[in-house]
Amino acid sequence: MRGAGSAAHYTQIPLLSTTGFARVHPGPICLRGEYTMPFHFLQEKWRSAAVYRLDGGLFPGYNKEKAPGFDPPGERRYPMEHIMELVRARRSVRSFDGQPLPPALREQMEGFLAQVPNPYDIPVRFCLLDAAERGLSSPVITGETLYLAARVPRVEHGEEAFGYSFETVVLFAQSLGLGTTWIGGTMNRGSFERAIGLKPEERMPCVSPLGRPAAKMSLREALMRKGAKADSREPFESRFFDGDFGKPLTEAAAGVLREPLEAVRLAPSAVNRQPWRVVVKDGAAHFYEKRTKGFSSDAAGDLQKVDLGIALCHFDLCARDLGQRPRFLLEDPGLPAPQDCVYLASFVLD
Ligand SMILES: Cc1cc2nc3c(=O)[nH]c(=O)nc-3n(C[C@H](O)[C@H](O)[C@H](O)COP(=O)(O)O)c2cc1C
Questions:
Q1: Mind listing the pLDDT tens digit for each residue in 298-333?
Q2: pTM exceeds cut of 0.70
Q3: Of 2, 180, 213, 275, which is the most exposed, with the fewest CB atoms less than 10 Å away?
Q4: Ligand 1 center to residue 180 CA distance, Å?
């Protein structure tokens, strides 16, 4: 079993800093720091402020001594729902404003990308690629000037680790008001792999455009969203189970896991398949991948495992934001599972 050791290590994660460098912080993940861009979903009166210093829900209250000279708008303590707000606000953005990322924002992104953890301790290395300079594009994206790409070693759980780390960056970008879209298929994969200098022992499952969303969604994007039913998700009870796969879990019965599971439910997935299944038993959430043919290739790996990594990310960040301390485990509980469902990982809430 690998979980216990790595879980202990996992508490020593870098503070997700927006100040340009990552610092090791012996505590839970939190988005924290100075934001030179307003959160686009904040109330109008806060939108005009040039700088926000925000403490996530796990950092109780605003500490003036730690941040001298800063006057937060309205003494607002950032709400516990921070991650949940980001999860709810995110959507795939396929129309961008055509402008380069302002240098300050790019710097913040680069600082954040320097080290993005995942519970597998598998390194996921990120880079930003200028679209015009590198000749990069996607047939479904317009107005983009920048791409986010990442590589992961071709090892067991590499795809889940990639999904977790990449989605952490997606949520961070969301917090800066930037748009993203996971792209695993609709791209010229060879050009992107050459642009990042991918090695034979590595994979680049997905990339994403990164930039400010266009003021108006293009008609093509609107039609794509409609076609993929991108705005809808399957009901809670169809994805989450109580004790075993035979009993659907209701929101009312989910207790403290309701919000973290709701964060899973709202996650993005390839073709919006939502392949995650979670069995909640004895305080643990066991994550399974419901496999569908056609999502695996040698180059990209299994994109549905990437989806599961995204689900684990949403669950973990949301639970931490709510003050819980989920422990990551790789230990199959041995529950009877449908033939096409494969156990991947668990979080235990003590
Ligand atoms: C692993 C993965 C791969 C994806 N690949 C593509 C892609 O190649 N092209 C695309 O337009 N969207 C792609 N998507 C975006 C999904 O279609 C989108 O997340 C889903 O329809 C839900 O919509 P939403 O992200 O707006 O909530 C991908 C998503 C994930 C998670």
A1: 999 999 999 999 999 999 999 998 889 999 999 999
A2: yes
A3: 2
A4: 10
